[in-house]
Amino acid sequence: MNLARYRFVLIRPLQLLPVLLGISIITFVLVRSIPGDPARVLLGARSTPDAIQKIRAQFGLDEPIWVQYLYFLKNLLNGDLGKSLLYKIDALPLIASRIEPTLMLVLGSVLLALLIAVPLAILAARNKGGWTDNLIRLFTTAGLGLPAFWLGLMLILLFSVHWGLFPVSGYGRTWADKMHHLVLPCLTIALALSAVLVRNLRASILLEMQADHVTAARARGLGEGALLRRHILPNSMVPTINLLAVNIGWLISGTVVIESLFSLPGIGQLLVRGIFTRDYMVVQGVAMVLACATVAVNFIADVATTALDPRVKIQ
Amino acid sequence: MSHSPSPTLSLRWRLGWNLRNGRLTLYCGLAIVLGWCLLALCAPWIAPFDPLMQNGELRLAAPSLAHPFGTDNFGRDVLSRVIWGARTDLQMALIGVIFPFLLGTCIGAISGYIGGLLDNACMRLIDIVLAFPFLVLMLAIMAILGPGLGSFYIAMALVGWVSYARLIRSQILVLKESDFALAARSLGFSHRRTLFGHLLPNALFGSVVFCMSDAVLVLLNGAAVSYLGLGVQPPTPEWGSMVAEGQSFITSAWWICTFPGLAVVTLAMGFSLLADGVAERLGDRS
Amino acid sequence: MSTPLLQVRELSVIARNGPREITLVERLSFDLGQGEILGLVGESGSGKTLACRALMRLLPSPNLRIEGKSVHLAGHDLLQLDEAGMRRLRGRELGMIFQNPSSHLDPLMRIGEQIAEGIRLHQGASRREARAEAIEVLRQVGIPDPKARVDNYPHEFSGGMRQRAMIAVALGCNPKVLIADEPTTALDVTVQAQILRLLLELRDRRGLSMILISHDLGVVAQTCDSIAVMYAGRLCEHGAKHQLLAHPRHPYSAGLLACHPAAQRQVRLMTTIAGQPPLLDALPPGCRFEPRCAQALPLCREQLPELRESGPGHRLACHTPLLAAGLS
């Protein structure tokens, strides 16, 4: 095993520090751009001149802006993202308690999308130019243009209202119940995501089918099935993993809408509710957590690519 | 001097070339988009009813000859609202693309042309903005600006410029080293004239093509933001918010949210077919 | 030599280009005996690679089509077999190695696994047996420390090692005939000699028959028993190596030999054959070499010379052959 190739696992997080710092600056700027006095905003309805004075001193709001940022950073490092006005508890534990549904939603969608995309891409590549290929192409074009909130509603109409197979909204208590509730939300995102994946996977499968090493394997007497399984698919999965990582931001954006639609108690729903209730600390916290998650996913994708492709060396 | 020393592409010429050699994809996309534009322009004459007119006696009426798309919970004609909604949504897609395009092009061009520390800083900024999930950052900005179309445009510009900046910058970096850039400089042209007169027109083409596929994303984003209740405010007809209004009646009146959604799908497909067609024509050419 | 191992009769490869059909390889016929190494020589584009791809029935494009009388190998007619039957023969009877070892090995698969793949497929070996066999094959092709190297990926090998690995992958299937398509072109000269020596060794040890495609007469001269010269999709001369090298009878073979740097040590300027090979979609009606041929007669312009027996074990397609010194 060549462990030296994985050295970046230790080094990369250090290189990511500037990006993380940048994320904190942007969220800080966001919160500071809220119109009006931050202390008044923080206190909401309870703002008496006394309390405002106290908050101003407590958060160092009288200090110059860069000192304020340092305070903000210090609180951040202590895991203090401020208090939620609506829920009256610290924002960080509030966000943490909402991570599970979102995580399940993202994982489920990716899994489902791969289950849909891989067979379709193979089918399309095999029948390149045929009517199957064109049909699948139509599906991908439509999939890219489907608004997630509407697709979700149509699925509800079909699966829940018409056939009564899945619940309309909410999130269960037991695991089985949760899975049952997650099917439709995951399917909604997966349909759109698989449209993106099919296009790229089809292209890379077509490219790999022409590859010299596949010809060589064919000259060894391998059948089409074995060729696909052992040589073509592994080689075309590498760019697909990267594509997934690139699209993670888009995927998370999708969960925000889908969680609101299906009333899943996830981070996205928290964000939308926070915006409507002017719960700025929560909005800021969610934005920061999701940005960090995006960075983390890209890092994980790098590790996965390295594990999959022995040639890759990440600096 | 009538022609510049650069092989300045005439954008109109190139597009014209592609249209002449266009394929089904391109024509379909163009037909759909133009069709919607026509509907939007002629909305006052085509729409059978006033999109805002409420009719207490005709609440939640199923599709019929008089109301092909049915009526909503206020008794408003859904068909007329969909047609009028085209105005809002097309405007959203158009302006939502133009703002990021202008901002991104300027930043990318200047960053790539000047290089050095400024370029470095710009690239870092782009990295950071890209770290945020698109919609999340947009929503966070809109949370501060408050709901409305205006804040949607501002948020769109603040978040969307990065793709254009990256595209333009990489083009400018290549073009900067090319012979005609040196020729322009050696003719004594100012930096501004070299950059905006000679380099930028040549770098622009890729991002103009990207605009078309970006329009799909902007449209979907705009509809999603309105669906969440942060974009276009009722009672203005807009497809995303119409879907949101119809959601509560999904079990009894499926038509309220189905038809506006279909409108989004067709327009988005039109844009993506258009983008595909243009990209395909270009791919064939090069 | 009794019945040859491989018997090719009138093999053609035809390309369809819209309504027009272009014959890229025309009625190729030759025999290959047990343990024989046949050198297939010609300029690039003369159809030598395509002919061998046609033998494997692995044409690079769906627009290409094979025609011919028969290709007999190990009791089968390859032209009559269905795809499944052909698949059973590929690798086991007919192995192939390629010009560029870097691109013809799967970058994501360990070398050992790629060798084992063929062994398991054709010999039904278990995973463990196949691995042991793979190590053995790697040792046979001269890879040092095969036990460790078996788990390496292609990119961890040097160019010459990669070519050895590719030979090992083909040998793992234990073929009777090995087609080597420019196996040394991508390698530097010292490695080239090593690989050629390895091929000769394998012939001696395993009784392997080979078709060696090359544009380099030096390579062919070092290794082959017989040489076939192709020009514009047709075979123009085929004979034993020594006879053909010493006394080429086709003006094109003679020209090729004269162009080889080793043949012209005294001459200052490199000799070349004037002109270009004809375009295959605009062939002259007569001999294809006629426009470039110094010996051409009016007959050459009108009539295409057929490939005929011109001596024991020697075939020739020319109206105006050079004098055969050996025969007089």
What is the CA-atom radius of gyration of chain C, in angstroms? 21 Å
Provide the CATH top-level class of chain C: Alpha Beta
- Let me know the largest β-sheet of chain A: none
Largest beta sheet of chain C: what is the strand line-up? 7-8-9-3-10-11-13-12
What would the principal axes of the Cα set say about the shape of chain C? globular
Mean pLDDT of chain C: 87
Unreliable segments of 5+ consecutive residues of chain A: none
| Major protein interface | A-B, 53 and 47 residues
What's the end-to-end separation of chain C, in Å?
26 Å
At CATH level 2, the architecture of chain C is 3-Layer(aba) Sandwich
Give the DSSP E fraction of chain A (strand runs of 2 or more residues): under 5%
Task: Provide the number of structural domains of chain A.
Answer: 2
**Please, how many helices of chain C?**
11
- Per CATH, the architecture of the largest domain in chain A is Orthogonal Bundle
Q: Cα distance, first to last residue of chain A?
A: 19 Å
Residue share in helix of chain A: over 70%
Q: Write the element-wise H/E pattern of chain A from the N-terminal end onward.
A: HHHHHHHHHHHHHH
Subcellular location (chain C): Cell inner membrane
Catalytic activity (chain C): a dipeptide(out) + ATP + H2O = a dipeptide(in) + ADP + phosphate + H(+)
Family (chain C): Belongs to the ABC transporter superfamily.
Enzyme class (chain C): translocase
Structure description:
The complex is a heterotrimer of chains A (315), B (286) and C (328). With 315 residues, chain A is mainly α. Chain A folds into two domains: 23-91, no CATH class; 99-265, MetI-like (MetI-like fold), CATH 1.10.3720.10. In chain A, 76% of the residues lie in helices and 0% in strands. Chain A has 14 helices and no strands. The two termini of chain A are 19 Å apart. By secondary structure, chain B is mainly alpha-helical. Chain B has a single domain (35-51, 69-285), classed as MetI-like fold (Orthogonal Bundle), CATH 1.10.3720.10. Helices cover 73% and strands 0% of the residues of chain B. Chain B is built from eleven helices and no strands. Chain B is elongated. Chain C has 328 residues and is of the alpha/beta class. Chain C has one domain: Rossmann fold. The chains are: A mainly alpha (315), B mainly alpha (286), C alpha/beta (328). Chains in contact: A-B, A-C.
